Every structure is written in structure tokens, then in C-alpha cells.
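Table S2 (text version). Query chain:
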Amino acid sequence: MRYSRTIRHILAGTLICLALVGLSAAYWALAGPSSLLLREDNPRIIEAQRDILRGAIYDRQARPLAETVRLDAGLARRYLRPSTYSIIGYYSLRYGAGGAESAYDEQLSGDRPIENIADYFQRRILNQPQVGSDVMLTLDAEIQAALFRALDGAAGTAVVLDAFTGAVVALVSQPGFDPNSLDADWPRLIEAPGNPFFNRALQGNYPLGGNMYLIWLAQAIESDFDLSWSFTAAADPVDLGDGMISTCLVDEAAAELTLGEALAYGCPAAFASYRQTESAATVDDMLAPFAFHEPLTLPRFPQPESIDILTSAAGLSPAVLELRHALGQGELTTTPLHLAAIIAAIANDGLAVQPALLSGLRPPETERWQPQRVQTAGRRVMEVETAQALQLVMRDARAKLWAPPPDSSLIGAYIARSYSGEETQLWLNGFVAPDNDGALAFVVLLEDTEDVTRLLSIGRDLLDGFANQQ
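Corresponding C-alpha cell output:
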């Protein structure tokens, strides 16, 4: 009896083991392949990704910006124009993708990874590699290069929009990186000062600072304020509390200035005085049409990051806080892209258009581009008459900034300053309208500098670059 019980226990244990083996075999036969193949550390997935023939990226004139090439060691991604690195981004088997490579990864990579054994059999055993589509962007490589040369390594960003369509014609963010050597440089780049992976045009949130003066001017025009009126003591500094003193950006400013002249010279006192007049609206009512709290962004790209700029405002009186808010040094911030959309709206008679970067797709084994630009409804931020009056004010401001001024009378521009913590930002914003069929809006931002001369030099180089493209 003792031996029979032992045999029964052994038999039961054997049957249980066989059942477990059977269940395990059934799992791996039915459900297991999918879960195993989709694991990120599965070498088959890595091998499949390595063999993807990724689509190329082109500018709007079909000039190549990035491409996949065949080397002895396999496929490799190559980036062809240093001026476009910050917007094209990178693609790496080790570190993923960023910029346009990430935003349009689904199209560039051929839509989907390997999903199951049948899919693997068709695309690997039958030698059917995954092939992606070519992507055409709205960028103009020549204008992009002119923008890149104008910045000449300065920390900051610049963006150019087609004022009528919202197309991103050029976008540069610095400091940047070389995606061709990303894998080797990654440990250094993630620790590098200035965060080269941070796209300042899209993600950077900055106080409006002197850009608020343009908003005040729009409100003054809509309230029928006499723009020929001169304000006294218009070049005086304005005390914003806690050691923050806001002064004119241009020393040549006269003691009496109109609002248009105050915009040209970056003088805050005239606008501080205007807000006390009967024509002035409340700050929040004035800002409402410009949607700074819901900024225009590029779909699929990183969104703006929040910042805290009022850490030094504790203890300030309500009157000083109100003055800061009125002069652009309150809690309100903007991205360079959103501000460029507002400048574009001025050139487009008051209509702001959603920025866009994707222009077309070319599927594998085809020669024809498929247009992808979806025209969205515009957002009216000001009346036509207001926008046209601001165009004239900005043209007058441009004539005061450079000596001699750029040749074209169809250029409008102004400079501004903002403060963020201990840092100072300088802005140069404007538009170029060579004819009635188009206009380009631009925003240039330099970080942590007070060098207005360099800003104006960058602006001159940029405008010359525009002129060479016409």
C-alpha cells in the first residue's frame, strides 16, 4: 500500500507537469508569438527596424534634407543641410526620433512595425522589406540657410511664416546638434548647457515684454486714438519694482514720442502713460483676441513648456503688478511661433492662420507627390483697418532702426525686450511683403543679451537674405 500511494503521487505530479507543459505550448502557439515579437528588447524587432528603408525628407522645392543610404554595414540616415538640423531632428535605433523625424515617423517608416509571425513571414522570409514614404515640408532651404547664417551661432531662435497660408518657411533653434553623429554625441548632448534638444521656437515660453506695445497700438487704433499725439517724458525709465527698470532700447529716443515712435525705439513710458487715458481698454480685454493662453502650435511637435517668471514678484504692490502686466512683464508668456503667427496676421490684414509644416507625401514606387496641407479656418485677431494701420506703423519703425534702412518700403519691423528671471531676451519681429500675392512674417529671439547692435545686424543680414530670394 505504501508503494502504491507513492506511485499515485508520482503519477499525479507527472500529469500536472505534462498539463503545464501543454498549457505553455498552447500559449506560445496561439498568443505567445505576438507578445514576444512586440517586446522592445526582441532582437527580431531591432533587426526589422534596422532594415526599414526610411523615406527621405525634402523642402518645398524638392531639395533633399534627409535621406537613407546603403552602406556596407547596412542602412544609415544622413542629414544634408546643417541649417535644418534643429527642425528636421534625428532618427536613431538607440535613442528614437525627434523633430520632424518624430512628427512624421509613421509616414517615413512605412506606417507600422512588424505585428505577428505572418507579417514577419511576408516581409522578412519573402524578402519584402518595410519601405516608408518620402515627406515634403513647407521649408525653403535657401531661406532657412539665410536665417541660419544671420543668427551665426547666437543662442536663441528664429521662425519665418508664410503670412497667408501659415506655412513654416524657416525655423532655427540654437544651440543645436548634429544628427549625423547623434549616437556618439548623445552622452555629451544630454548634459550640454543650453539644452540643444529644446526647440525654443516651439517649446520656449517667454514673457511678452516690449511685444505688448504692439498689442497696445492695435487697441489704440481700434479705439480711434490719435496716433500723432506725442507723450511727454516718453524716453524716461519705468520702475517695475524689485530692481527691474525698463528703459528704451534705442538711446536716440526723443523726450516726446508718439506710440508708433515708442514702439520703434522700444520705450515703455509712452505706453505706461497711454494706459491711463480714456481710450485704453483693460489689459485682459485687450489681450483676449490674441489667444496667448491657447497658443498656435505645430501638430505632432513638442508643445510649449510652462515657466515660472514671478518668483521675484513676491511683496510687490497690486499697482506695480498691474503695471508689469500692462507692459508685458506679468504672468503672460508667448512662444516665438505664436508671436510669429500674430505678426503674420498683421501682414494678412488681421487673419491668423494655423502654422503647418507638412506639405506632401510620396508613397513608395510612385513619382507623384500627394498634397497634405489642410487649410484650416483663420482666426481673426483684429479688424482689417487695424492691421493695415499697424503695417504702416511697423514700416515707419523699420525706417528708424537701420541707417540706411533696407531698400524695400514693404518691410515692417520693430525691436522689443523682455525679462525672464535674471536673463534678458531681445526680439526683432516684422514682415516682408514683396507683392500683393504673398508676405513673410519673421520673429528673431536672442537669449541672455542686451546687445541691440547685434540684433539689428542679424536683422539686416536676414532681410538681405530675403531680398536675394526674391
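Notes on Table S2: The longest strand covers residues 423-435. The mean pLDDT is 87.
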